[in-house]
Amino acid sequence: MLRKIFIIVGILLTTKNLWATQPKTLRLGVAGLTHGHVGWILSRKDSGDVKMVGIVETNKVLAQRLSSQYGFSMNIVYDTMEEMIAATQPEAVAAFGSIYEHLMVVEACAPAGIHVMVEKPLAVNLAHAKKMKALAQKHNIHLLTNYETSWYPTNFKAHQLLHDGAIGELRKVIIRDGHSGFKNVKINDEFFQWLTDPVLNGGGAIMDFGCYGANLMTWLLKGEKPNSITAVTQQLQPEVNPKVDDDATILLNYDKAMAILQPSWNWPIGRKDMELYGTTGVIYADNRNQLRVRKAEGYDGFSEETFQLQERPAPFNDPFAVLAALIHGSLELEKFDPYSIENNMITMEILDSAVKSAKSKQTVQLKE
């Protein structure tokens, strides 16, 4: 009898410990459905860590179309943030509307203590970004910015190799991002309408893809700001993008290095890649999984090592898992991590200055 009691107590203690170690499910709201990346959450497999509890979208035709495609109930679709928050009590909200709407999402969520993750970039301009940061700090919420490149194992391998001294001191970085244009990649009309609006997107390709390079440089240089920023924009497809630039070159001048960012909606092949040139070698992050390191030998010789990298381990292979882990205390971001507010405020300074430089045709000084 005593043995049976010990067994039962042991089972109960084991069950209790299992319950204690089970990750809590994050109650997630979604603000907007017009962003083409919203499919990342709508199609996400149920892993028990995140539950989508409500959606805010006034365009019911769009909502119904996505409901039919992804299988969520129209009963969880609300007209306003206030209605959704009151009805569903989310712990966090992921913003999938226009970039201009990011500030309004934070204004609705922060006072209620609701954490926010927005799609890149953080805001349409630096003024919006400062208001968002102030609200996040005042109400002690996480405010993350999600970039696809934050999931890339090649970028993290490049970061590690650089700081391990694999190519010596960094001197030049070239980062190229973009695609062949919306006529060719065939995005939905709701996404296209605000992506090509200078108010709702803050600009064209200079914002849409320039943010990747600014974010990565801020991370690679551990929060160092460029001394100056010079940007040139073009409009190579005016019939498709009549209101905004669709091609840009941004030069970032640092104390000991220079970065050349090349965001464009005119690449013949879609790309997100970067090249890091040091004093003794080069790192080529060719795409998400392929990376090469060249070590200099003599005048123009080199040895080359190629890496085929596996996806990043959980939770870093999924932005919603990162958000849940941060909120529930099992993860802490390093300073100037690509998701972090510290990084993205500098990223916004760079983008804001780049837009001003392109418009004025003058170099903008960030550090005197």
CATH superfamily of the largest domain: Dihydrodipicolinate Reductase, domain 2
How would you sum up the global shape? globular
> Unreliable stretches, pLDDT < 50, 5 or more residues?
4-21
Structural class: alpha/beta
The largest sheet, given as strand count, sense and whether it forms a barrel, is:
9 strands, mixed
Q: In total, how many beta strands?
A: 15
Radius of gyration: 23 Å
Write down the domain tally. 2
What CATH architecture of the largest domain do you see?
Answer: 2-Layer Sandwich
Q: Work out the strand percent.
A: 15-25%
**Cross-sheet strand order for the largest sheet:** 14-13-12-11-7-10-9-8-15
CATH topology of the largest domain: Dihydrodipicolinate Reductase, domain 2
Helix-strand pattern, N to C?
HEHEHEHEHEHEHEHHHHEEEEEEEHHE
Report how far the terminal alpha carbons are from each other. Answer: 81 Å
Pfam families: GFO_IDH_MocA, GFO_IDH_MocA_C3
Domain Gfo/Idh/MocA-like oxidoreductase N-terminal: 45-144
GO molecular function: nucleotide binding
Domain GFO/IDH/MocA-like oxidoreductase: 157-283
